[in-house]
């Protein structure tokens, strides 16, 4: 009875002490961030908040031969003892008594881990604290957990901590595959990390590694020193590094970036003179929406050039126009061949003008978008509503940032809001993938994100077809092989020049300007950003044109988001396009005009001059004109596909 009570009391005491004095894991949790490309080659890195190159490492990511060598050298009975090895302690104490000095230590890996978590001087009191903490660590995390902590904290020279970081810096590769010499150096370094640094003391490092191998009974390879490199992490993706750091990413991170493509994009940007005191930025998305290249800033030294323009909020100029028209097509109020009037118009207190200060009269939506006329785009936004436009984009993961206290207005059509390049690329990527909007991913594997439907596949194809007819920059020749669909934009005051293009499923967005927001007189999206965008696009892998191919869903699509099978859309049969109809008789009375359509999915909805036509159920559709003149007649089927004609009524 007494024994049971004593055991219970002891257990209660230990649990209480464990809760009152938990192990301090701050050092283990303060990780550096190292980025790798798709092949596993290092791209960039940043030290932890305490200035160390410390990377989370677990035994599954380390060469088994290294683990065997480590345990054979440092703690043969690691999997047996509870954190403190009584045989090692007795042996060390006996050697101390017989020889008068320490011959071998009694520290286990758990005790070394305790000291690495809370560094202190080597004293008897410290040894006792390490032993107690080692017991606690084994109790809390088990043998495997303690081993993982050691692998993450082991000092490997200078500010390098952990087996993964040591392998990266000294050998230039991961710790998953280590030669015997490399494994031996990583085992030896924690004993004297300053004295054995291979970049400063190569001979000492070679001798220490050879001694570890010899004591373990492993043959020492010839030319041992040639296995040891110098500490270096490239700095090839600083913008992505900053972006991921701000999201809380730490440790080794595999990105979706391709080093050759990243270098190619940077080379193109740096080889092209930027605007005066300005710079470049570019983003390249693969057909699966992953980021292949991310250049947040490139060009000459300039005010604010260190800013990542991929995530900066800038005016998009005219680059949102395709999506205004797309949503107008989706709602059935416009179609590619709808006639719009490009003439001086005042919308309440807003009187927009074209960039060239010239109005072009009557024009189709197709021509207006290809030529980037301002008034037709503002009219289209007025038809669907600025609030609806902004809310729809927001529902699909794209934010338009307005000035403080402002509400959505028609100025959105001409760049009257802030947008990030990352979101702009998402919009154009949706055009390439049946209207499905998926956030660009920069890590592998990509996070599970369910696409949302921005607009129908038919609308996406209509807009892409229009953008393929956009005039190319001066000096660039079109060809049948080129399927580039693109749009340019220039913000108010010539502060930003944009070009966004889609080809064969790839999306490229390029920005030029001054990061500090100052004006760059003379820059335009067409003449500055578009040539660079097309040069980047021409370097991308050739292949079949996948524009319009449904995006592979990163998660199962909800039933409402399933990609619908393609069918022929509706077509207006009567009245035919361009018809002149005598509707008004001598007495001024109007004869109704019959409306007939075929194709698509019924029921149909009819729009007259962008206004819905009420048609009683069971009756044929007809329209009674309220006066002579031109009229726009559109039909929209049940799937949101539309076609239209323009007629003249007398």
Task: Give a short summary of the structure.
With 650 residues, the chain is an alpha+beta fold.
Overall 3D shape: elongated
Bin the helical content: 25-40%
Query: Which residues form runs of ≥5 with pLDDT under 50?
Result: 544-567
Global structural class: alpha+beta
- Say how many strands there are: 25
Classify the beta-strand content into a percent band. 15-25%
CATH class of the largest domain: Alpha Beta
Question: What is the residue-mean pLDDT, rounded to a whole number?
Answer: 83
* CATH fold title of the largest domain: Beta-lactamase
Largest sheet: number of strands, sense, barrel closure: 5 strands, antiparallel
* N- and C-termini, Cα separation: 111 Å
Number of domains: 3
How would you write the strand order of the largest sheet?
A: 7-6-16-15-14
GO molecular function: carboxypeptidase activity; penicillin binding; peptidoglycan glycosyltransferase activity
InterPro entries: Beta-lactam/transpept-like, Glyco_trans_51, Glycosyltr_51/Transpeptidase, Lysozyme-like_dom_sf, PBP_1c, PBP_C, PBP_transglycosylase, PCN-bd_Tpept
Family: In the N-terminal section; belongs to the glycosyltransferase 51 family. In the C-terminal section; belongs to the transpeptidase family.
Enzyme class: transferase
């Amino acid at each position: 009875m007494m024994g049971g009570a004593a055991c219970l009391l002891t257990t209660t005491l230990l649990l209480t002490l464990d809760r009152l004095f938990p192990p301090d894991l701050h050092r283990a949790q303060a990780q550096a961030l190292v980025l790798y490309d798709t092949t596993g080659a290092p791209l960039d890195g940043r030290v932890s908040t305490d200035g160390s190159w410390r990377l989370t490492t677990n035994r599954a990511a380390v060469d088994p031969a290294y683990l065997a060598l480590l345990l054979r050298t440092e703690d043969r009975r690691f999997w047996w003892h509870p954190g403190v090895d009584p045989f090692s302690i007795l042996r060390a104490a006996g050697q101390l008594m017989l020889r008068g000095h320490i011959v071998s230590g009694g520290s286990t890996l758990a005790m070394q881990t305790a000291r690495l978590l809370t560094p202190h001087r080597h004293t008897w009191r410290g040894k006792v604290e390490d032993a107690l903490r080692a017991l606690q660590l084994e109790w809390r995390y088990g043998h495997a957990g303690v081993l993982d902590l050691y692998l993450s904290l082991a000092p490997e020279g200078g500010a390098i901590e952990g087996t993964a970081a040591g392998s990266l810096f000294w050998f230039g590769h991961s710790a998953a595959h280590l030669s015997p010499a490399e494994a031996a150096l990583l085992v030896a370094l924690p004993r004297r990390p300053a004295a054995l640094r291979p970049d400063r003391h190569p001979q000492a490092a070679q001798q220490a590694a050879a001694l570890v191998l010899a004591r373990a009974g492993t043959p020492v390879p010839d030319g041992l020193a040639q296995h040891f490199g110098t500490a270096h992490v490239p700095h090839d993706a600083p913008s992505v590094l900053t972006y991921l750091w701000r999201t809380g990413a730490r440790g080794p991170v595999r990105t979706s970036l391709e080093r050759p493509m990243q270098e190619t994009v940077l080379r193109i940007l740096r080889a092209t003179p930027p605007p005066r005191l300005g710079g470049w930025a570019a983003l390249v998305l693969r057909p699966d929406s992953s980021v292949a290249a991310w250049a947040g800033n490139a060009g000459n030294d300039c005010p604010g050039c260190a800013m990542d323009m991929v995530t900066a909020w800038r005016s998009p100029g005219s680059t949102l126009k395709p999506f205004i028209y797309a949503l107008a097509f989706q709602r059935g109020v416009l179609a590619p061949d709808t006639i719009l009037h490009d003439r001086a118009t005042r919308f309440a207190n807003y009187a927009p003008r074209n960039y060239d200060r010239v109005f072009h009269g009557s024009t189709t939506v197709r021509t207006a978008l290809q030529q980037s006329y301002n008034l037709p785009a503002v009219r289209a936004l007025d038809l669907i509503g600025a609030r609806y436009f902004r809310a729809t984009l927001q529902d699909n993961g794209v934010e338009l940032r307005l000035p403080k206290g402002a509400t959505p207005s028609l100025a959105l059509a001409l760049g009257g809001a802030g947008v990030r390049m990352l979101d702009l690329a998402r919009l154009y990527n949706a055009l390439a993938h049946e209207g499905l909007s998926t956030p660009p991913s920069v890590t592998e594997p990509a996070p599970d994100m369910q696409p949302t439907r921005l607009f129908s596949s038919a609308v996406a194809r209509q807009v892409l077809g229009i953008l393929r007819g956009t005039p190319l920059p001066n000096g660039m020749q079109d060809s049948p092989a080129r399927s580039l669909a693109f749009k340019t934009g220039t913000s108010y005051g010539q502060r930003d020049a944009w070009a966004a293009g889609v080809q064969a499923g790839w999306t490229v967005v390029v920005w030029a300007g001054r990061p500090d927001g100052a004006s760059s007189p003379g820059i335009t999206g067409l003449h500055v950003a578009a040539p660079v965008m097309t040069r980047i696009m021409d370097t991308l892998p050739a292949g079949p044109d996948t524009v319009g191919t449904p995006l592979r869903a990163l998660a199962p699509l909800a039933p409402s988001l399933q990609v619908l099978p393609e069918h022929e859309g509706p077509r207006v049969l009567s009245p035919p396009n361009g018809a002149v109809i005598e509707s008004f008789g001598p007495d001024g009375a109007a004869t109704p005009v019959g409306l007939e359509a075929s194709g698509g999915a019924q029921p149909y909805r009819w729009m007259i001059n962008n206004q819905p036509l009420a048609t009683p159920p069971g009756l044929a559709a007809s329209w009674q004109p309220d006066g002579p003149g031109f009229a726009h007649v559109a039909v929209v089927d049940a799937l949101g596909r539309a076609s239209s004609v323009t007629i003249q009524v007398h």
